[in-house]
Amino acid sequence: MELIYIIGKRKGTPRNVFSEAEMQIRKMGWVAINPLEEILKFNEVDEEGLNSAEEESRFLIPFFNKCSGVYLLPGWESCQSARKEVAAADEASKRIMYQPQQVSIDDIIRAAEEVTGMSFDKIRARTRKGTIVEIRRAIFYLAWKYQSTTFVALAQMFGMDHTSVIHNRNTAKRLLSAGDERTTEVITQIKERLIA
Fold first, then answer.
1. Do residues 94 and 7 share a domain?
2. Cα atoms in the 13 Å half-sphere on the side-chain side of 31
3. Rounded Cα–Cα distance for residues 23 and 42 (Å)
4. In whole angstroms, what is the distance from residue 191 CA to residue 67 CA?
5. Which segments of the protein form a coiled coil according to its record (predicted)?
6. 143: domain CATH number?
7. 111, 166, 172, 185: most buried by Cβ count inside 10 Å?
8. Does pTM top 0.90 for this prediction?
């Protein structure tokens, strides 16, 4: 089984960005090495932990060396340690893969329309009908997850206040964490359509 190391800006990048990349790599049939998770595991065991980017990079060398390829997250160019890892991968003739383009809000809305069979006008209509509210929540959650747009831009698009968008996103997060089947199903279906 081929091992793929994820390269990206580790500091300041939400953990879910690396986790999503890990899932993408698995879907391609490979095993992912997620450096953020490896650092977190180490810091849980070692009381001193890793205190600098340089220490993290040294710690990650054995993981990097085991891999036959690397998967680059958007924005890797702005991080010095990521640039060094890419240069090392290139020098070692490792496979270099780029994460597909970031998912746009239009992609998310189109996927929601395809999954539900509803038009955007119907989804954004001022109604509290359960199914439509669930779909809007899913769209707001996925837009946040994929960093597709701001809450203010979403609010304008849907004719709402940005605090309502945030509330709906938070509700979707809470329901997902609680294992709500309907919320999980709607979000999963839209995500699968985005990935396909």
1. yes
2. 8
3. 22
4. 28
5. none
6. 1.10.1750.10
7. 172
8. no
Domain that holds residue 134: 105-195
Which residue in 104, 75, 69, 103 sits closest to 88, CA to CA? 69
Q: Are residues 28 and 88 in the same domain?
A: yes
Structural domains in the chain (count): 2
Overall size of the chain counted in residues: 196
Q: How far is CA 85 from CA 63, 103, 113, 169, in A?
A: 12, 25, 40, 35
Classified as helix, coil or strand, 167 is helix
Extract the residue ranges of the chain whose pLDDT is less than 50: none
CA nearest neighbour of 115 among 187, 189, 180, 184: 189
- Res 139: pLDDT: 94
Residue 194 to residue 196: CA distance in whole angstroms: 6
